[in-house]
Design a protein that fits this description.
By secondary structure, the chain is mainly α. It has one domain. About 45% of the residues lie in helices and about 5% in strands. The protein is built from 9 helices and 2 strands. It has a two-stranded antiparallel ribbon.
Length: about 160
């Protein structure tokens, strides 16, 4: 025999389940996620083209190569997790952004500053515009190659995989 519940009992049960689920969600979230990462949503994909967006960076050589459809969100939330040992810049899983945003200490620092001012400072801190290509390849390609050597699933390691014509 199946017991029948009144509509008000069903609503109370649904409200309880939703409340319990929400409470569990907030209890298991990593520290800082609510405070930092929810302020500005991480874009799914981005185009990396510093030459077009911030050509005034001192020493930046003329270049037309860009990286389209970079999976920004997947890198921050999945690909970089537990992979600091393969990367040229040490980072923690609590703040993977610093792997690519050199010297950053918070998401607010990345999103709150003028883009070109922030990039100029980051590029200057890594040897200047003359070394930009080397910096990017060290950051991206070297990490991918190190992962590949270790038998890990990785991203592209060939020029045309990132720089599509």
């Amino acid at each position: 025999m199946t017991k029948k519940y009144s509509p008000s009992s069903k609503k109370k049960l649904a409200a309880f389940i939703c409340s319990a689920g929400a409470a569990a969600f907030f209890l298991i979230m990593p520290n800082g996620l609510l405070a930092e990462e929810c302020k500005t949503p991480t874009p799914e994909k981005i185009e990396i083209n510093i030459h077009a967006t911030c050509s005034e960076i001192p020493g930046l050589p003329a270049d037309t190569k860009k990286t389209s459809d970079f999976s920004h969100k997947l890198h921050t939330e999945k690909y970089l997790m537990g992979k600091s040992g393969f990367h040229s810049t040490p980072y923690t899983d609590d703040f993977t952004c610093v792997a690519c945003h050199n010297g950053a200490t918070s998401q607010e620092e990345i999103t709150g500053a003028d883009r070109c001012d922030r990039l100029t400072a980051a590029v200057s801190g890594q040897g200047g515009g003359e070394n930009y290509k080397k910096q990017m390849h060290s950051m991206c390609v070297d990490c991918h190659k190190n992962m590949k050597k270790a038998g890990e699933t990785t991203g592209p390691t060939k020029c045309t995989d990132c720089h599509k014509k």
